[in-house]
Amino acid sequence: MHCQFLFVAKKRKYMTKLTPLENRYRSAVEKEKYVKQLFAEIDDHYDFMNRFMSLGMDMSWRRRAIRAAGFAKNARLLDMAAGTGDLTISAFKIHPEARLAALDFCTPLLTIACKKFSRFNGKYSVEWINGNGLELPFADNSFDGVITAFSLRNVSDVNQ
Prior knowledge:
By secondary structure, the chain is α/β, with parallel strands linked by helices. The chain is built from five helices and five strands, in the order βαααβαβαββ.
């Protein structure tokens, strides 16, 4: 199996505003660095932890969210902070004709997502992008919608 990622790197002007209730970091840069390192360290256990902490309900939450969004069958969607690809998989199960891009700044999680998709033998096509959701490398109106699961708790600037 071969996974190829588009890597996006930009010189960034970091904000100093943190997410609400997150004052343990001295700066947004520090929080971003911590989050990236944390997910790289727990990558092999991330899916198990989601299932365990949600009592197995996380996958049904994802499917319900995709259905509730009401996207067209062939929508062009961005899974921002795609992680290990569970929401991307849910989107394809609900809308097999959808066109998806999956973006995450944690390469180990994207690698797991790509491996998960290999079991579908090319049935679904995903553009894998290693990049930051606060610095989207797309032109305006590139997507019909954006999906995300648990990302807002981890962003360094929710207003951005």
